[in-house]
Model the fold of this input.
Amino acid sequence: MDVRLSAVDAAGKGVPVQWQDEKLTLREPPLARSADIADVRAVQDEYGQTALQIRYRPEAHQRIHDGTAAMVGQRMAISVDGRVLMVATVQGPFAESMNLSGLTGSDAEALEKHITGSVPVKP
Done:
């Protein structure tokens, strides 16, 4: 399972991918990869909405913090095995974890299972 957190390059320099009806370009190398992930789970955010929380390993915290601090206001993509699952705008730097909000409970659970390898996401 190859999970990546990548910056979306507005200048079009990087790896071209499709997301919904939009063509994106993702910068290489990604900010985070599967090896950086310690845990993935569906949680409730501070507003009581379902979110997907991705916690990172301690050795990746500073690198991810620095990378996302430089990306505040810009878009990033979460991809699994080369397929973009979500694109979001970075609201602030993070290091220990990130929450992907705006998901239904079933979508968050499906993504959790897919990223952890429990159940494949339907195409």
